Amino acid sequence: xxxxxxxxxxxxxxxxxxxxxxxxxxxxxxxxxxxxxxxxxxxxxxxxxxxxxxxxxxxxxxxxxxxxxxxxxxxxxxxxxxxxxxxxxxxxxxxxxxxxxxxxxxxxxxxxxxxxxxxxxxxxxxxxxxxxx
Length: 133
Fold this sequence. Notes:
- By secondary structure, the chain is mostly beta strands.
- The chain has one domain (2-121): Jelly Rolls.
- The chain has one helix and ten strands.
- InterPro entries: RmlC-like_jellyroll (IPR014710), RmlC_Cupin_sf (IPR011051).
């Protein structure tokens, strides 16, 4: 279940707005890159309560699966703030056409560890963004 609240980016805290501006081409869509082949990248997102993964851009087709239940908040590039509740096993798939993307962060606003597995497909319509170690 998700609840989206439309907001203006200018209403976000200064720290978030600065990070938003600085990370426009951040391809690290997880907290740890577990595996990469010619076809896929497999990521882990592991967030303790209060932790967040900073702004990152999705350009490749991908899916995520929640390994643990929990609650999260995401700030999206159009100013929307999304509060979501996840159950273990929840899965969502995303497909991006040429030039399409999603830019957002993710914060664990619950009281238990939040764990996701994300798989990106490297043969998508867009080229991959660089990732850092």
